[in-house]
Structures are given as structure tokens and as C-alpha cells.
Design brief:
53% of the residues lie in helices and 20% in strands. The chain is α+β, with helices and mostly antiparallel strands and 125 residues long. The chain has one domain. The strands form two sheets. A three-stranded antiparallel beta sheet has the order 2-1-3, sandwiched between helices. Strands 4-5 form a two-stranded antiparallel sheet. A hairpin with a 2-residue loop joins strand 4 and strand 5. Helix 3 runs antiparallel to helix 5. The longest helix is centred in the N-terminal third of the chain and has 25 residues. The chain is elongated and about 65 Å long. The termini are far apart.
Length: 125
């Protein structure tokens, strides 16, 4: 009897923890999305919600080499939604492994920062 009650209490606590985690995920976190070009001409997107932009760029150069070219940075209101629901979806047909084969029009599109209304909501808030 005691064992079963403890089990139910543990399950209830776990459920509360899951709800708390979901709430945290639903709270928009501002940050930056960085588009950069690698030495092989391919592109990558990276993001941060915890580092300063300059720190993230230093981190990217440390990981990929000093010859990466920062193409554009976006300051976002809801970084995770913008990245996962817009960037990854919008350019999924250009994905090659973990790199993107973007063309000039794609890069211009990103630089103009004129996105569909749902994406603008995540971008500007």
C-alpha cells in the first residue's frame, strides 16, 4: 500500500516537472542566429540564447577556423522557434548533411529580413 502511494507521488512529481519544463520551453528566449560560409563554399546556421554575439562568433571561428565568413546575423525575439520552425524548414531543400547549399537569392532573402508573418513574430516579437 505504502509502496503504491509512493509510486503515485513520484509519478505526480515527474508530471509536475514535465509541465514546468514545457512552460520554460514555451517562454521565448531572445538571442542571435548567425549565417556563415565555410571555406568549402557551404553555409551553416548557428544560434545562441546565452552568449553575446561576439562570443558566439569567436566560438564559431574556433570550431570551424578563422577563414569562415560571417554573412549575416539576426537578433531574434524567439530564437528557438525562428531557428527550428522557420530557418530549418525554409531551407530544408538546400540541406546537405549539416551544411546548406544556399544560392545568392537565399542569402539576399536572409539579409533583407523580410520574412513571412509567423516568422516575423518569432523574429521581432
Amino acid at each position: 500500500m505504502n509502496k503504491e502511494r509512493n509510486k503515485k507521488e513520484i509519478e505526480k512529481m515527474k508530471e509536475e516537472e514535465r509541465k514546468e519544463q514545457k512552460k520554460k520551453r514555451d517562454i521565448p528566449k531572445s538571442g542571435y542566429i548567425i549565417l556563415f560560409r565555410l571555406s568549402d563554399g557551404m553555409y551553416k546556421f548557428s544560434y545562441t540564447t546565452s552568449l553575446l554575439l561576439e562570443q558566439k562568433i569567436i566560438s564559431i571561428k574556433r570550431e570551424y577556423g578563422d577563414n569562415v565568413q560571417i554573412i549575416h546575423t539576426l537578433e531574434t525575439f524567439d530564437t528557438m522557434k525562428f531557428y527550428h520552425k522557420f530557418i530549418k524548414t525554409q531551407f530544408s531543400n538546400r540541406l546537405n548533411g549539416d551544411k546548406y547549399e544556399l544560392n545568392d537569392d537565399d542569402v539576399i532573402y536572409i539579409k533583407t529580413e523580410k520574412f513571412p508573418s509567423n516568422a516575423m513574430q518569432w523574429f521581432e516579437g
